[in-house]
Amino acid sequence: MIENPPPLASPAASFTAHERLMIERTEEAIRDGLELEQWCRKELPGIAQFPLDLKKGYRLPNRAKGFFASANFRQGPTSIMGCLQEVDFGPMAAQDAAGRLQEFVMGEFLKRCHWVYDDGSPGGFTVEQSLYKSAAGEYGRQPAEACAGCPDWRDLGKRFEWVLLTVQIHDFVMDFGPFRKRLREAACVAAHAGFIHVTENPSAEYALEVSVGYPFVRHAPIPNFFGFGPGKFGNAVKLYSFFLTRSGEVRVRMVFAAAPRCQKVFDFGKRWPDPVYGGASLLRSLTFGQWDTARFHDRLDSQMLAQHCRVHQALMDGTEKIWSAWLKSPGCA
């Protein structure tokens, strides 16, 4: 394990303007994201959900649902949109199953979740570390040899208060009529101990829950024209919960939530209105309120949630293979 690099003595003098902005936005994302994460864990079980059609088959059994809601957070009332996915990883034949599952989620999951498909295309997520805040409250940059991969979640709260991550998203594939396009997408997220939950016997069905997650930081590493997505969220979180059933099965529950709901489909700059939602509002005005913009928004927002689920179902299909191979490696039998 790489030792902590020496922290920079004076952020104001040593950091660039962009780095100072990213530190500010990271701490803002953590503050707001923790509130949204707590809402998800407490309120989501009681929120009405609707099925999402992913329009393609996947290797692992899965169920995807969307939801629309509202809440009153620290910054005031807000709308929320999100999705919940449940994936069956299958039986776990290993000694100390609970310990092995915790070791994988905390130390290996987001570090290993990338691969190359048969056609040479990358799959999964590639994670890189950059800025951090130490447990002592000092800011620094990760040295070059420590940048690749996700940090061990067990270091959060001990060595680090937070670590800023850039996640390259390799399975963002969209169909435009008969054409399929693999888009380059990336997100800045923050690893923080507040998003870690390890709970024994969380329910009658499960013997163990191991959860990690992150809030999204308001910065798009790869500029894009999307109005809703990485760098364009107000407050958003992604949560990964791995459960071990009492019969030895492993299941994964993924939750994504964003507040407020999508405001733009496309973002061409502050001076240009969104042609989709802006056009819908104009049509409503022209029809004296006869055009139902709420149903139109619900339909398009649902399609965005389904696209999010497709990316993360591909992530789980690939990660399960890595998980199975890891379990068979020396020391995991």
What does this structure look like?
By secondary structure, this protein is α+β, with helices and mostly antiparallel strands. It has one domain. The protein has 6 helices and 14 strands. It has helices at residues 11-14, 17-43, 97-107, 109-112, 277-286, 293-328; strands at 50-51, 62-73, 76-91, 114-116, 122-134, 139-141, 160-169, 173-176, 179-182, 185-192, 197-200, 206-215, 235-245, 249-259. The strands form 3 sheets. The chain has a 7-stranded antiparallel beta sheet, sandwiched between helices. Strand 11 and strand 12 form a beta hairpin. The longest helix has 36 residues, at 293-328. The relative contact order is 0.18.
Please summarize what this structure is:
This protein has 333 residues and is of the alpha+beta class. The protein is built from 6 helices and 14 strands.
Task: Report, as a whole number of angstroms, the end-to-end distance.
Answer: 23 Å
Strand order of the largest sheet: 1-2-3-14-13-12-11
Q: Kindly report the average pLDDT value.
A: 88
Tell me the Rg in angstroms: 20 Å
Shape: globular
Q: What is the number of helical segments per DSSP (H or I, 4+ residues)?
A: 6
- Order of SSEs: HHEEEHHEEEEEEEEEEEHH
Biggest sheet architecture: 7 strands, antiparallel
Number of strands: 14
Strand content: 25-35%
Counting structural domains, the number is: 1
Question: Level of helix content?
Answer: 25-40%
Q: Which regions contain 5 or more consecutive residues with pLDDT less than 50?
A: 1-10
